[in-house]
Amino acid sequence: MIEEYLNTESFTTRKELVAKTGLCDREIRNRISNLKLEKPVIYNSQTKGYRLAKDLSKLSREEVIKELLEAKHSRADIIARIEALQSQVKTYDDYLKDGETILFRKTNEELYGRGCNSRVN
């Protein structure tokens, strides 16, 4: 379980997780993603590492503020990835819509001929 290789105090990079676990990078990313479904995993894009979220009830007020700020940064990273994926989905939606229009036109041409819009030379 990937959680065994993470702690609440220091960031662990994917490269370090690959070395410690023997899993490939893609599997590390999948396991981190699955862990994020169960609990917050703090991600630091500057150090490219992960750590487990701290128990807020055991922190001082100042530590809670710092932890919440890091959690907000992690959340913002997730939102940015969602937005990038939504843009990619739009590209596919446009392609599929164009393809369905072309398919409809070609099907009609096969069934009914070129119709009134075709020119005879």
Structural class: mainly alpha
Widest sheet: strand order?
1-3-2
What count of structural domains? 1
Q: How large, in whole angstroms, is the Cα Rg?
A: 25 Å
Most strands sheet: 3 strands, antiparallel
Count of DSSP H/I helices: 3
What low-confidence regions span 5 or more consecutive residues with pLDDT below 50? none
The overall average pLDDT, rounded, is 92
| Helix share bin | 55-70%
Distance between the termini: 72 Å
List how many beta strands DSSP finds: 3
* Shape descriptor: elongated
Order of helices and strands: EHHEEH
- % residues in beta strands: 5-15%
3D structure, described in words:
The chain has 121 residues and is mainly α. It has one domain. It is built from 3 helices and 3 strands; from the N terminus they run βααββα. The chain has a 3-stranded antiparallel β-sheet. Strand 2 and strand 3 form a beta hairpin. The chain is elongated. The mean pLDDT is 92.
Q: Which terms would index this structure?
A:
single chain; 121 residues; mainly alpha; 3 strands
Describe the secondary structure blueprint for this structure:
Blueprint: E1 12-13, H1 14-21, H2 25-38, E2 41-44, E3 49-52, H3 61-112
Antiparallel strand pairs: 1-3, 2-3
